[in-house]
Amino acid sequence: MRLVVIGNGMVGSRFVEDLLARDTSDKYDVTVLGAEGCEPYNRVLLSEVVAGRHDLASLALTTPDHPRLRVLRGTAVTAVDREDRVVTTDDGGRHRYDQLVLATGASARIPALAGLDTGSGELPIGVHALRTIDDAREVVAATLNARRAVVLGAGVLGIEAASGLAQRGCAVTVVHPMDALMERQLDGAASRMLAATMPRAGIHPLIGTGAEAAVVADGRLTGIRLTGGEVLESELLVLATGTVANTSLASASGLPCERGVLVDAASATADPRVFAIGDCAQPPDGAMGLVALGWEQSRALAERLTGTTGRRRARAARSNDVVRVKAHGLDVVTMGVCGGVRPDDPSHRALSLSDPSAGRHVEVVVAGGRLVGATCVGAGTVAADLVAAYTRGTPVPHDPAHLLLPALAPAGVGADDGSAAGHATVCRCNGVTRDEIERAHADGARGIDDVAKATRATTGCGGCTQEVCDLLARLGAATGGSDTAPDLTIAGSTL
Fold first, then answer.
1. pTM of the full predicted structure?
2. Considering 126, 150, 183, 485, which has the largest number of Cβ atoms within 10 A of its Cβ?
């Protein structure tokens, strides 16, 4: 059967890997059409490249070497003919399919800001999005000559990009028109705590202030004019104003689209031969934008098409919405029910602790004896405990205040036996448990690269890297081996 996959990004490439691993009956011949000319790469870590903690080579993802797989890079799709079941590409190629998977992802949203339209389709010199590996390369190059930088937008990417620019020595201002930083994840109190700690990280936040225009001279950025008329002098502007799902191919072929391509819970579109996964897909619950969701969709679709069930199915879906900001000096973790627009549910009980002098704010939301959401700013140890409780769905103490002050918890509260600890999720992007890492270690995995190859742990957002290193060190000591704590170095950059 001919299967064509449009898109060779994080989700498209993962789907192909998942499918071929399960297709033991040799049912599918797979053709992948990728518009970018490079190997697939970890887009989540682009802000880490800006910060200098990863280099571009370390972002590359593996492509299976398989006799029934053909990958055409640098090949853009121009049309999908669903009646004839043919995909046309910009090099004149025609690729017939029996089943088609759309993994076209999303593009950076470019705001309608005066001064950005140069008439050539290119942004002015000094203005960059941060969505592709080329974007990251250009931003890093721009920091060599830029002393002042502005980041427009203070969602997760905006905060991470600002941190990266500060690490590169730029004086950074974040301009955010909403009333709270990271408003999807933080309410006003948490936002204020984060804003108070940002100057220590070299970042100046402007909240509730929008940008009116990019000030450009001779095709080069010189500043940003704010909505109040003030002009911030700047040689570099990074746009972190969200993304737009790439739905043009689907829409032109007659498939229903809204924010994304409309799919059912099994990633099927209105055409039973066409599926959509990742950032371009809009499932019934409307959840979009997190790579863990896309990877879960790829796994489920691979199982559906091959009629198999993988052992990862037991992974808690709630681990998909844990957000951990990767920013030097800014410790922010959120999960589940959080943010200023959370639902007004009378069954939810919320408790919070704020400690401005320590730059710490923690809020937990409980319902039915379980943790259903949490926000942690400047409270890394507490955040780790809350993530474990949230992803595993363990019962909370009778008094939920003990979640805010774990040192006061009665003996035995929240304690796990060895079995529960083994099932704890370590890598939440890939659903890798402690048990799986221990099995990989028993099979000879001794370093981060070994564990990544065996389990995929650390290949998502990278937030679990330290935890995996610590676990490997403990396993080495317990087995009497010579293992030491692995050096957190990735392609020449030490974390």
1. 0.84
2. 150
